[in-house]
Design the sequence.
């Protein structure tokens, strides 16, 4: 479904990622793990078209999207849940959710019901301001907003960041439910427990480059990976 071939991204003269290659099969959950500043978020931003690629190519469903505008990438079926959620805090929960469907011309009612089924708390709080929600509820809202775009690929950047363990469990269950519905998931995370629970395949990135890749169970059995991410 998705193929990155040796992409490099610069921020000014600084190299953020270098010669990064990865692939996602349709229907899979793939994770990218690494320390803060390793370049994980830049990979997602490059796929979304939010940063310009210095070299390399990106293909989605067999078609090149390397220089495609952001709006077109969304319409092709790629949704991005950014780190920090990036909600509109003074707008209602419902208004934030509906923003996810801004490019759609078809009936979005079934997808709205699906979001409310996945996250009943959002339905209960649909008239509240987004900024009044708890951290976990805001993460649910960010995911729900992305699902309203009816994505084929859902990319999530640090969805467990700042959340209590019980809320992380709920996020993990949501990711598994989303994947079971047929949506491919690309997850950027530092929480190895979440990665192990939801992913089949994993890439380890250090200082902008992929240093390891493989099945999650194999990587988590690697002593260096365990020391870095499991303690």
Sequence:
């Amino acid at each position: 479904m998705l193929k990155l071939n040796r992409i490099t991204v610069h921020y000014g003269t600084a190299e953020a990622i270098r010669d990064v290659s990865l692939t996602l099969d349709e229907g899979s959950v793939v994770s990218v793990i690494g320390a803060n500043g390793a370049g994980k978020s830049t990979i997602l931003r490059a796929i979304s078209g939010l940063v310009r690629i210095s070299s390399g190519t990106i293909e989605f469903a067999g078609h090149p999207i390397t220089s495609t505008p952001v709006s077109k990438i969304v319409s092709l079926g790629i949704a991005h849940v950014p780190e920090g959620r990036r909600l509109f805090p003074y707008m209602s929960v419902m208004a934030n959710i509906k923003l996810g469907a801004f490019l759609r011309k078809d009936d979005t009612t079934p997808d709205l019901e699906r979001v409310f089924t996945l996250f009943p708390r959002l339905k209960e709080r649909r008239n509240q301001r987004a900024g009044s929600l708890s951290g976990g509820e805001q993460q649910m809202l960010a995911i729900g907003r992305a699902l309203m775009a009816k994505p084929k690929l859902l990319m999530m950047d640090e969805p467990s960041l700042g959340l209590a363990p019980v809320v992380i469990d709920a996020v993990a269950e949501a990711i598994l439910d989303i994947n079971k519905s047929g949506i491919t998931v690309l997850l950027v995370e530092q929480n190895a427990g979440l990665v192990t629970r939801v992913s089949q395949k994993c890439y380890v990135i250090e200082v902008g480059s992929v240093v390891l890749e493989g099945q999650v169970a194999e990587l988590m059995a690697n002593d260096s990976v365990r020391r870095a991410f499991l303690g």
User: Anything to note?
Assistant: The radius of gyration is 17 Å.
